[in-house]
Amino acid sequence: MADMIEGHGGDLALAALRAYGVTEMFTLSGGHVFPIYDAAYKAGFPIYDVRHEQSAVFAAEAVAKLQRRPGLAVLTAGPGVTNGVSGLTSAFFNASPVLVLGGRAPSFRWGSGSLQEIDHVPLVAPITKYAATVTGTEQIPAEIGRALTAALTAHRGPSFLDLPLEVLFSSEDVAAPGEPAVPVLEPDPDEVARAAALLAEAERPVIIAGSDVWGGDAVAELRAAAEALQIPVFTNGMGRGALPTGHPLAFAKARRPALGGADVVAVIGTPLDFRLNFGEFDAARVIHIVDAPSQRATHVQAAVSPAGDLRQILAALANHQGKRADHSEWIEGLRAAEDAGRARDAEAMAAESDPIKPARVYGELRKVLAPDAVTIGDGGDFVSYAGRYLEPAQPGTWLDPGPYGCLGTGMGYAMGARITYPDRQICVLMGDGAAGFSLMDAESLARQNLPVVIVVGNNGIWGLEKHPMQAMYGYDVAADLQPGLRYDDVVTALGGAGETVEKSGDLGPALARAFASGVPYLVNVLTDPADAYPRSSNLA
């Protein structure tokens, strides 16, 4: 006879969640979901709470991204769920296997005007892999299994379930959930062979690898394929660091000559979107390698587009036995461009100026960040510099909003990162505009003893809007913030600490104090409002 579990809906939910490797929940307290809290409390299952539901979903997404397993957010009904929609949408664009469990007004009174009564499923269905209402207590384990299987199946993404009040509070005796079984998509071997031959025989090939290479646990296979075929590699998103800085095939600064001169470009595990000029690479033929057929670009005519498990596809590329062109001259030319770009960056990052140039902030950060530090970008203008000047030494250590471009990820991502890595440096890079979205959750970090370093680039403007408006119209509106605002005092008042830096020579000591503090610590850097950086294709 199968093992049985007995209890209220929260007990049944927790048993199913644990079977799929979930080890914590993120939430903002709400009465509709009390039984889930009760189950967690009785089992010693960690609960982390926040001050805005979007931070709960972003924290769950950080866990999902960093650990490549499900992250869980539990949200109360109505505004609890709708406050989490931006987080769900970001997880959808980022292929993050997040599960949101929502409370729901009772079904037996549906339509009578219960507190926070709204049908969530139509709202979240377009931005989830699976969305449903659980209609019976006995269905909870099976529905959670279906939702998490969908979230973990390539192309990965979030799932949503809501549980009516009476379903969650009632008790049942049901079969325990079985072992998870996540299907693996087998690629078409002929398509893979065509892609391998195109790359091997190209005169000037380039690989661009993105977040799905990390999410699909295919970093080692990417490196093997690049080395076997001798192809230069550029990365974005969580693909950054897949080839360590200093690897002879790792490039970051020579993107323009590479994409302008390539005859074949293989884009692996990332969409052909605005970050990659929508897949338009001059005369180059495009290979688009994706983890599921749904991710094949429809606006570009790819030469070939293998779809399936990225480990299998990249391993096959590495084992290609056909004809190969000599790429050494191509690589040598790109290396010269790369070295020239690095020299320019080094000069910018050492700039002595008043006010401080954003590049100098990243020059100082590079001196203190450990190789395994997790860096989190939450902003537009200021984080664009991070994409240019910070180079993760290891894969899976860079978190930014991704192609959806949603601000406010910072504190939630920081919470998920700190829980994932209790002993690593966690550094949030935040624009002063982005600070308005989530900085209150510095209180959540302080209260739950989750220290992180927050570096705010404070130029007193919406940099990516003010300068373009001025260029287009000769004026700007709705683009100014308070200059010199003391965001460090905000974090200090919330239980952390911080300081304001006005001189470039004071940056290094301030960062050292921040990383040694043991509390959420905000370094508020007053940067030059005239020095705005255009949107960077290096962002995830």
From TrEMBL:
Lipid biosynthesis among keywords: no
GO CC annotations on file: acetolactate synthase complex
Domain of life of the source: Bacteria
Keyword field: Thiamine pyrophosphate
Pfam assignment, any one: TPP_enzyme_M
Domain Thiamine pyrophosphate enzyme N-terminal TPP-binding: 9-121
Swiss-Prot/TrEMBL cofactor(s): thiamine diphosphate
Gene3D superfamilies in UniProt: 3.40.50.970, TPP-binding domain
Thiamine pyrophosphate enzyme TPP-binding domain location: 378-525
One Gene Ontology biological process: L-valine biosynthetic process
Entry's Gene Ontology molecular function annotations: acetolactate synthase activity; flavin adenine dinucleotide binding; magnesium ion binding; thiamine pyrophosphate binding
Record-annotated Thiamine pyrophosphate enzyme central domain positions: 192-317
Similarity field: Belongs to the TPP enzyme family.
Name by which UniProt lists this protein: Acetolactate synthase
Gene source species: Couchioplanes caeruleus subsp. caeruleus
Classification lineage: Bacteria, Bacillati, Actinomycetota, Actinomycetes, Micromonosporales
